[in-house]
Each structure stands twice: as C-alpha cells, then as structure tokens.
Amino acid sequence: MQYNFDEIISRKDNFSAKYDELNLKYGRDDLIPMWIADMDFRTAQPIIDAMKNRLEQGIFGYVSRPDSYFESVCQWYSRKHNWNVESKYMSHSHGVIPGLVMMMNDFTSPGDKIIIQSPVYNEFFEIVQDHGRELVISPLKLTNGRYEMDYEDFEAKVKTGVKMFFLCNPHNPVGRVWTKEELMKIGEICLRHGVQVVSDEIHCELVYGNNKYTPFASISKEFFQNSITCISPSKTFNLAGLQSSIIIFGNEKQKNRYDYLLQINDIKRNNCFSLVATEAAYRYGEEWLNQLLVYLKGNIDFVYNYCKENIPKIKPNIPEATYLIWIDCKDLGMTADQLKNFMTNEAKLGLGLWYGEESKDHVRMNIACPRTIVEQALLRLKAAVDTLQ
Ligand SMILES: Cc1ncc(COP(=O)(O)O)c(C=O)c1O
C-alpha cells in the first residue's frame, strides 16, 4: 500500500499535546508546533485495522497479555537487528520515562550519582533531579561537525562513584547512531566501574541510510547482564498516546524485582489498544516504516538545503537517526533567552529549546509533518532572520 505523508490531517479534536499545549508552553498558540516528539502522520494501516477490530468487539475489560505480544518484539529484533533476545527477559511499562523513573528509584538510592551525556533529552535531567539523585554530566564532544562521546571525561566522572548511566541510543537530540565500537568503549568503562547501563533505544527504528543501529545489550553477554534496554513502538509508529513500552532486562533479579513493583503498584497490564497496536506494528508495520523513512529523509534534506541556500546563519545538523533536527544557531549571536524569544515570538515556531547547558545556542526541530508545513516553518524562520540584518 502506498502511504501519503503529504496529506495534511487536522489535529483539531485530536487532544494533541503538540498543538493544544502551545499556549501553556510558549505563551502563545499561533506557532507551528515542532517540539514534542510525535508525528502529524496517520500510523500504518495494519495498526489502525487491528485497533478497529478491537474497538468493534465493544468490550474493554482488563486484558491479559498473550505470549504473541513479546514474541512479536523478539521476532522483529531478531530479523531487523540481529539480536536474538528471548521474551522471558521482557517486561511492560506505561512509557520509557515512567519505566526509567521506577528503575532508578528502586535500583539506586537518594543521593546516588546518575550520569548522562549532554546535550540530551530534557527528561533525563529532570527525572534525576526530581527524584533526589545527583546528576553527573559528561558533555558530548563536537569533532569536525560530528558529536562524539568523551570517553576520558566519562571515565573520570564515573570513577567518582556513579551508579547508573542513561544512554540514549540513537541519541536525541544530536541524531547520532552510536556505532558498535563507540558502544563497546563506553560499555567497557561502565563494566570496569560497576555502572549500570540503562539504554533508552526508543528512536532505534528511525535510522537513515547506511547508519546501523546496534542494540547495546546485543554486543556481549557482559553488556547484556549489565544493562536494561527500553524500547517502544511509540516513536516509530506514532503511538505515544497508547502509553506502552517494553523493558528488556539482562539481570533476572532486577527483572523479578521490577515485575514485583508492577504488581504491587497495579500497573502490570497494557491497555487493550496498545496490546493489539504494538503487535500489529512489529508484525505488519515495516512497509509503512520504510516509506516513512524515505519521506522523513526528504524533509531533513529539504531543511538542510533550504537553510544552506537561504538562511546560512542557521546550520542544521543532518541526523543519522530520529525525526529531530539539531540546529546550530550560534551565528545569530544570541543568548539562550534571546534565542528562545526569537524563535517563539519572531519566527513563531514552537521548537525544542533546552537540552542542557551545551544546548544554549541550539534548537531542535521536529520535522515529522507534511513537507508543506516544514516549508512554511522555514519561510517564517527566514523572514525572522532577515529582519536581523
Ligand atoms: C529519548 C527519549 N526517551 C523517551 C521519550 C519518551 O518516551 P515515553 O513517552 O515512552 O515515556 C522520548 C520522547 O521524546 C525520547 O526522545
């Protein structure tokens, strides 16, 4: 089936955070929303069909997860990513972040150090600090226009007694797909110093060209046992509103403990729609995904070329993965507050604005929308930048 990603679908009455919370977040609602990471596209037809069938049953009582649910994930991972992980290692969560919070709270103690690599997904900062852990930041290094991990800095910092590492693989917002070699280096450091790796791999299917996603835990038995992997069809298939993700444990004791926490908090079940949607995504969603990736890459190239030709002071980074473009605005010569004000009140764009201290002259643009919307956004941006000259 041919999908039409150019179609503009109104999100009015869609109760969409991206649109309906603009005022709350930016103080105005006349912005083109390109912030929170969801897409303005309809999901794959097999997912919609599966949900429709479920809807037509008309009974929405408590659900029991069939074996085929996690098996669909295992089969996808084995086929797509050459990782033969068994379903017995998998658990459920109402989202990657709720899962991270629960694990951090239970597997570390208040005051323990958690390391992250900035700039990185803003929730990583917030959950660590909100839950009384000490945030340790190892900034990524920019080498010849490409972000890299700083192993020396990372190792020096973990030696101070870090307990847990939130890895973002692939990385939001810089769009890197960490290579196997990079993951091996960082994973070895963690093993050496007893740091547990929690790898957020939510963006792992949104990878372009020859870049190759490597599940951290697939690298070796030692890495598997020292890691917890968080995945979800939510970013890939635009299902974030179904609030369901999968946590893969390499350590049986931790998995049993986590399952016990799900039990005693009474949050062990999926909702009935996430159950069928997830399985349909992993079993029948690939055709849609392949077309989506071509479209997203077209949007990325469009942004890059447009800025190069028309707004040279705005320098988008071409992501290896994700539909989020990390944009260098240094040449505008603004402070973080000025940049925020400029993008919101002059360019009238609702962009991602804060991912750590290292991000103060950058913004993040979500281009998972029809190209005409991306074009409108760039016209707004150019008009605003032109007024500065
Ligand atoms: C790296 C990363 N992790 C987690 C999330 C949120 O996941 P969830 O909605 O499953 O909590 C996002 C959303 O943008 C993300 O980019």
Automatic annotation (TrEMBL):
Keywords: Aminotransferase, Lyase, Pyridoxal phosphate, Transferase. InterPro entries: Aminotransferase_I/II_large (IPR004839), C-S_lyase_PatB-like (IPR027619), Class-II_PLP-Dep_Aminotrans (IPR051798), PyrdxlP-dep_Trfase (IPR015424), PyrdxlP-dep_Trfase_major (IPR015421), PyrdxlP-dep_Trfase_small (IPR015422). It comes from the Bacteria. Its EC number is 4.4.1.13. GO terms for molecular function: cysteine-S-conjugate beta-lyase activity; transaminase activity. Its cofactor is pyridoxal 5'-phosphate. Signal peptide: none annotated. The keyword Metal-binding does not apply. Residues 38-378 form the Aminotransferase class I/classII large domain. Belongs to the class-II pyridoxal-phosphate-dependent aminotransferase family. MalY/PatB cystathionine beta-lyase subfamily. This is cysteine-S-conjugate beta-lyase.
